[in-house]
Design brief:
Chain lengths: 453, 336
């Protein structure tokens, strides 16, 4: 099998060995859940429950009208204790619904799931409605509503299961492939059916080769059960940001997603492994997205683990319950997500949400911090940029406030993967500048279009 | 929540171990073979030139940054690189006060006046040499034959191969001047480096080893050196000069690997770098053929440095580039 990749990128230290071989552990009882109302990319939604109300696991507790909205469900059965703003993993305070678990009364079920639905026989509309009703968003990190992604307005030729897991430290996708390959394969088949794609590809980076035999076995079993569905494995070079949607598409199909366009413009749909499992659960069990797998690791974590926990579980509660042990003395940085794109947060009393792929507890040694020095124009960022954006020149334009030039270089095409900042020998905060610059440029463009009207 | 404070910063939270001092030190390491050979060829005076140049460069940067109350930058080793590079492109017999003056000029005028590391438009070491060449043309163009580590009473003044060619000597006579039996042996001798010239540029072999080391560890890229050396060869051939001699003598290989690849003053984009390198080759050959000096690498690189900001506009097409929609042509009725 040929190993494919994209141009550019870098090799950050992988540091996956801590949790790579730890089986996924299921967290069943928690003392409370803090469920953020808004966990998706799109329009905000509102709570549907009141303080004091009893809710079942899987019951919808927040929703709104609108295409870019996704409902949120109670992840445990219990009583709504509070509805108040709390610190979320994106470092902003957002409205959260706090539920304290309580056993249901005699004869009552503690869950409120939907009836199972067969995606291979139901209509496309039914399937998309189910995915929205199950509250599924992209679980790789972006939190993009899945029902929008799976309703492309253009024909799709390839469905790609993103198991690249190019972020260092994280191992949950690899563990999922090893432990539940059937589910991933089935998820790919379901998505292929929904978007009517003839081909499915499960993309795995080379450093997770050990998962390939498991997936191969599952593919074999699946092709016997449902012949005629074309799914294959594609090995990819271990390189960051291989798991970026655009890079993955380019590596596998050779096509480039046009600037300002979407994967569907080149006939692709990419879904993260976790999302695919959630889709399978939503159809087969009628279970909404109320729990997810994530990796807890880092040198300050004495017990690196791959966990599946209810959405809204506070990391601090996992410590209290003895599931995690933290080297508090040595802990210097807490990151929600991977080390390349994750968000550093001021503590770990923060809930796991739908897009939390990992929690990093970095030690003093790991948590490097540098002051910015002057650019020596070495060009490392230019060669590393997977979007070929000339970060060194882009940074000059952004710093000078020349947003016209910055847009020309491709500020809005930046995928914010952070490779430029990683390779910079002067520790320039390049991607950080581009994040701010993108927001300013978008605001400027909006103003311009308003004035033009 | 524990009251202790955690580090908060925007991602990424990992950093490559390659930093500015490490890059600069690797350039110094790459220059060690050529420097050592220069000292072997010309003895103590060469060592004195190298030491003077480095010390005055670092001291100039230190004092200037102190004077203008800016952050101290001598620990990034860039001044060491500038000092060393300047020493290696000077004749071994250069008076030490001139060396110091050139080095100070390179650091303060060519580098710090423009904002220091990374902000200088022209290569500081070459500016230093150009400044000395214009101020003291006699001293900077007086060469001596290699005399080894033995201290000669007075260095025998000699001509460089390019001097002799410029004066209209035939290649075979030039070979004889350097004690080579025929042209082929002369080429081999030039490649190994036993000839009169600047301290660090004579041995093509050792310069290339240093350059390939930098290429191998990814400090420099191949586009600039290949285009400089390749175009010098081609343009020499086109102008009826001996292309092998053109590449093996003078400072073209040294310039290609260590001067033209200077981060701050070469273009950042691959296409820009290729044009930059070809320009250097062309201008070098033009100066050698038609100019007043026998050698032109210094000016060729400095002239092309001036084009760098424009060459930086030749960017690679970004990922997923879509050509902007052409403005619709006005309809014929509108024109009427």
């Amino acid at each position: 099998m040929s190993i494919k990749t994209f141009k550019g990128g870098a090799h950050p230290p992988e540091r996956k060995e801590r949790s790579e071989e730890k089986s996924i552990e299921r967290v069943t009882s928690v003392s409370q859940v803090v469920i953020p109302v808004n966990q998706h990319f799109g329009a905000p939604i509102q709570p549907l429950v009141k303080v004091g109300e009893y809710v079942k696991a899987g019951q919808k507790i927040a929703d709104a009208e609108g295409r870019m909205t996704v409902p949120v469900h109670a992840s445990v059965a219990g009583i709504v204790k509070k509805i108040e703003p709390r610190l979320q993993s994106n470092n902003t305070e957002g409205l959260c619904i706090i539920i304290e678990p309580k056993e249901p009364e005699e004869g009552e079920s503690s869950t409120d799931f939907m009836p199972p639905l067969d995606p291979f026989t139901c209509s496309k509309e039914e399937a998309l409605a189910r995915i929205r009703a199950a509250g599924i968003v992209g679980m790789g990190g972006a939190g993009f509503p899945a029902h929008v992604k799976l309703a492309p307005s253009k024909p799709i030729s390839v469905v790609i299961a993103n198991a690249a897991e190019c972020e260092p430290y994280l191992t949950i996708d690899a563990r999922t492939l090893v432990e539940m390959p059937e589910k991933v394969v089935e998820g790919v088949a379901m998505v292929m059916k929904i978007v009517n794609a003839p081909e499915g590809v499960i993309a795995i980076e080379e450093n997770k080769k050990f998962a390939i035999p498991h997936v191969e076995k599952a593919l074999e079993a699946f092709s016997k059960a449902r012949p005629g569905i074309n799914i294959r494995i594609q090995e990819l070079k271990t390189k960051y940001p291989q798991g970026g949607e655009k890079m993955l598409i380019t590596a596998i199909t050779g096509r480039e997603v046009p600037s300002g366009g979407l994967p569907m413009d080149v006939g692709c749909v990419v879904q993260n492994v976790g999302t695919l499992c959630a889709i399978v659960d939503a159809f087969k069990e009628g279970k909404p997205l109320i729990e997810r797998g994530f990796t807890v690791t880092g040198a300050a974590c004495k017990t690196p683990k791959n966990l599946v926990a209810p959405i809204g579980t506070l990391v601090s509660d996992l410590v209290k319950a003895g599931i995690l042990e933290i080297d508090e003395e040595n802990l210097a940085r807490v990151v929600f997500g991977g080390p390349m794109m994750g968000v550093a947060v001021p503590g770990y009393e923060i809930p796991v949400q739908k897009n939390t792929s990992g929690v990093l507890l970095m030690s003093r040694d790991e948590a490097q911090y540098y002051t910015e020095e002057t650019c020596i124009r070495c060009g490392r960022c230019m060669r590393a940029c997977a979007c070929r954006l000339s970060p060194a020149l882009l940074a000059v334009a952004v710093e000078a406030g020349d947003y016209r030039e910055a847009e020309k270089i491709g500020l809005l095409d930046c995928i914010e993967c952070g490779t430029c900042s990683f390779v910079c020998p002067a520790h320039r905060q390049l991607v950080q500048k581009f994040r701010v610059g993108k927001q300013i440029l978008r605001a400027l463009k909006q103003k311009e279009s308003q004035n033009a009207r | 929540m524990p009251d202790k404070k955690y580090l908060l910063s925007s991602s990424p939270h990992l950093f490559s171990p390659v930093d500015t001092p490490r890059i600069m030190l690797s350039v110094v390491i790459a220059l060690v073979p050529a420097t050592a050979y220069g000292i072997y060829l010309y003895g103590f005076p060469a060592l004195a030139v190298v030491a003077t140049s480095i010390v005055s460069a670092v001291a100039a940067e230190f004092l200037f940054r102190k004077l203008i109350r800016q952050s101290m930058t001598i620990d990034d080793f860039s001044a060491v690189v500038t000092g060393l590079l300047l020493a290696l492109i000077l004749p071994p017999s250069t008076p030490l006060w001139m060396v110091a003056l050139g080095s100070i000029f390179a650091i303060i005028v060519a580098k710090e006046f423009f904002g220091g590391l990374g902000a200088n438009p022209f290569n500081p070491a070459l500016i230093g040499r150009a400044f000395l060449l214009m101020s003291f043309p006699a001293a900077i163009t007086s060469w001596s034959m290699p005399h080894g580590l033995a201290l000669p009473a007075d260095a025998v003044s000699a001509a460089t191969p390019l001097n002799l060619v410029k004066q209209g000597n035939a290649l075979a006579d030039v070979a004889k001047y350097f004690g080579a039996s025929d042209v082929g042996a002369f080429y081999r001798q030039l490649f190994m480096g036993y000839r009169s010239g600047c301290i660090g540029e004579s041995s093509i072999l050792l310069v290339a080893i240093g350059g390939l080391f930098l290429l191998g560890i990814g400090v420099i890229q191949w586009v600039v050196p290949v285009s400089v050396i390749g175009s010098t060869f081609v343009f020499s051939l086109l102008l009826g000069m001996d292309p092998m001699l053109g590449v093996l003598t003078g400072g073209i290989v040294f310039g290609a690997f260590f001067m033209a690849t200077d981060y701050a003053t070469r273009p950042l984009t691959p296409l820009g770098q290729a044009i930059f390198g070809i320009g250097i080759g062309l201008i070098t050959v033009l100066i050698r053929k038609f100019g007043g000096f026998p050698e032109g690498v210094t000016y060729a690189i400095l002239i092309m440095n001036a084009f760098t900001p424009f060459l930086n506009k030749l960017r690679v097409k970004k990922y997923g580039f879509v050509p902007p929609p052409k403005p619709a042509k006005p309809s014929k009725e509108a024109v009427k």
